[in-house]
Specification:
The complex is a heterodimer of chains A (about 475) and B (about 100). By secondary structure, chain A is mostly helical. Chain A has one domain (about 10-470). Chain A has 19 helices and 2 strands. Chain A has helices at about 10-30, 35-50, 70-95, 100-120, 120-140, 145-180, 185-190, 200-215, 225-230, 235-260, 265-285, 290-315, 315-345, 360, 365-380, 385-400, 400-430, 440-460, 460-470; strands spanning about 55-60, 65. In chain A, a hairpin with a 4-residue loop joins β1 (about 55-60) and β2 (about 65). Chain A is globular. Chain B is elongated, with a radius of gyration of 17 Å. Chain B is built from 3 helices and no strands. Classes of the chains: A mainly alpha (about 475), B mainly alpha (about 100).
Chain lengths: ~475, ~100
């Protein structure tokens, strides 16, 4: 058999990103001003975003799928990089970690996420996941002279490696059962041989659920999230709370709805308790937090629980609502972290909730922006957070999971307490000490983008919803 | 010929030793070794399946797992080293800077 050259069109954006990330790593040797590398990385991902449109297709014998679904997620990842770099530039100078590798690692992690979103085969899924995870472990421990950052990297690394071993065991069982690792072939084998209820299949479903729950920080595999979010550099916390979570949902949707689509009734029984537990743990433990990064970690756990409802409903509407949710979450969470980063200045950590007391009196503009993001995270109408929640809950109601949605709404009401507490501190308390804000044009731009998107897509969500629905036709 | 079940049992036993080691030991290096043991348990089952199915995919995945595990070891040891420089301990119970 003559070896056939695979069609490189669908992987072209990933190829370009690989080359650019390597070039940036080299450019670090000659460029002394690290802001330039940040700018170059934004230009790189913008070029990749431009190339995405022409990359539709399937290649490497079905191992790599570039469809509307993956392109939608890749746009979220690229947006994530742009916003992370914008909020990082000044912050990493204050933390004295402005090395060029920082930006290269962000690009490599993003490359891993893009491979995950496009994976049509469990082998590619594993490789993408590890590329993303290994880069993120290093980024979490990037402040190598800070004990908290070391500890965060350590915990993330140990539990991440543990979870990926479970993913591999699940892969191995599925491979032994069906004789393939291709998601579509697995799906047709399961349907064709009537494997529903097979104990080995159930075991591997559980293994996959464990591994993906870890990646999206769903309970009971969320224990790493609060410590890692608190210890990691704040810009990386922002990056991790959006990118890897969205990538986790991308593979969760692809694997559970494509490969295991025919045994949906069985995995729903695993995911419903996980979703309820996640919302419960996230929202209730967040009530007692005093560190804002830690509070947002629990909030991020809770949001994973809401988004899981879209996967549970299992319909096209459910999937597009998860995509919308991840898109919304990217903007509101990035915005909140941008404000948190502004409070960090030389000799002042600014990650305690008390530091926000009276912020509205001393710095009204950041206080107004923080209020918008907190409203959006709570899910108050006219913000994009409300729209995300609304469509996820709607899809679950239509799929017949009314009782789960009622529980979700109750937890969502509880969550208002800790989000609105920040707003109360900012507007109704007297400032104790003058808080210095670290501003820069880049962070201003990031806040402008996120605030505009939170309000804009909150009032007019139809454009992005139409895009998400269009993206999953033919999924 | 050794039946497939024997290989699968060996693989499950090695994997479970890894899981228990990870959950019970408190030394970071040992926990890390336990994770490697889990990965090698998976490798045994993949190679066994690959042989009995007469299909190469399993063995290809094993090569990728070995490579990624090597990269993981490099990063893991680097993180342990960075931590040890600041804290001079490799005991997870002493990793208690953050609580809540």
């Amino acid at each position: 058999m003559q070896p056939v050259m695979p069609d490189l069109g669908p992987v072209f954006p990933e190829t370009v990103l690989t080359v650019l990330a390597l070039v940036l790593l080299l450019a670090d040797l000659v460029i002394k001003r690290k802001e330039t590398i940040g700018l170059l990385s934004i230009i790189s991902v913008t070029a990749v975003a431009y190339l995405l449109a022409g990359s539709l297709g399937t290649t490497f014998g079905g191992m790599f799928i570039s469809d509307g679904y993956s392109i939608f997620f890749k746009l979220i990842f690229i947006l994530n990089v742009i916003l992370t770099v914008l909020i990082s530039v000044k912050y990493i100078q204050i933390e004295k970690i402005d090395y060029g590798e920082y930006y290269s690692l962000i690009l490599f992690a993003t490359l891993g996420m893009m491979l995950m979103a496009s994976a049509g085969d469990l082998i590619i899924l594993y490789l993408g996941l590890e590329l993303m995870a290994l880069s993120t472990y290093v980024l979490a421990g990037f402040m190598r002279r800070d004990v908290k950052s070391n500890e965060a990297a350590m915990k993330y690394f140990l539990l991440g490696a543990f979870a990926s071993a479970f993913l591999l065991y699940g892969t191995s069982l599925i491979y032994g059962l069906t004789g393939t690792t291709d998601l579509k072939a697995i799906s047709s084998y399961i349907a064709g041989h009537g494997l529903a209820g097979n104990p080995v299949l159930m075991l591997s479903l559980i293994m996959f659920a464990v591994a993906f729950s870890f990646k999206i920080a769903a309970a009971p595999f969320h224990m790493w999230a609060p410590d890692v979010y608190e210890g990691a550099p704040t810009s990386i916390t922002a990056f991790m709370s959006v990118g890897p979570k969205a990538a986790g949902f991308a593979v969760l949707g692809r694997v559970f709805l494509t490969a295991f689509g025919s045994v949906r009734t069985e995995w729903v029984l695993i995911l419903i308790p996980v979703a309820i537990l996640t919302m419960g743990v996230g929202n209730i433990v967040a009530l007692s937090q005093t560190n804002i990064k830690r509070m947002l970690a629990y909030s991020s756990i809770a949001h994973a629980g809401y988004a899981l409802l879209g996967i549970i409903s299992g319909t096209a509407d459910g999937l597009s609502s998860v995509m919308l949710y991840m898109f919304a979450y990217a903007f509101m969470n990035m915005g909140a972290f941008a404000v948190i980063i502004m409070l960090r200045s030389e000799g002042f950590r600014g990650d305690n909730i008390n530091d926000y007391e009276g912020l509205a009196k001393t710095h009204p503009v950041p206080a107004v922006l923080m209020t918008i993001f907190m409203f959006s995270l709570t899910g108050i109408p006219t913000t994009v957070g409300f729209m995300g929640k609304f469509y996820v809950f709607m899809s679950a109601v239509e799929a017949g999971y009314m009782w789960v949605v009622i529980i979700a709404v109750i937890f969502s009401a509880i969550s208002a307490y800790f989000y609105l507490r920040i707003i109360m501190y900012m507007w109704m308390r007297e400032p104790k000490e003058a808080v210095e804000l670290t501003t820069s044009p880049a962070i201003g731009l990031a806040l402008l983008i996120t605030a505009t998107a939170v309000i804009g897509f909150g009032i007019l969500p139809s454009s992005i919803l139409t895009f998400a629905r269009l993206a999953i036709t033919g999924f | 010929m050794v039946p497939l079940t024997w290989y699968l049992m060996l693989s499950a036993v090695v994997f479970m030793i890894g899981v228990f080691g990870f959950l019970t030991r408190r030394n970071i290096i040992i926990m890390f070794l336990s994770v490697e043991l889990m990965l090698n348990g998976v490798n045994i089952s993949l190679v066994a399946f690959s042989h009995y199915l007469q299909d190469l995919r399993g063995q290809i995945l094993v090569f990728f797992i070995i490579t990624v595990a090597a990269a993981e070891a490099a990063i893991g040891l680097a993180i342990i080293l960075a931590l040890f420089r600041n804290k001079a301990t490799i005991h997870v119970d002493e990793m208690n800077e953050m609580k809540g």
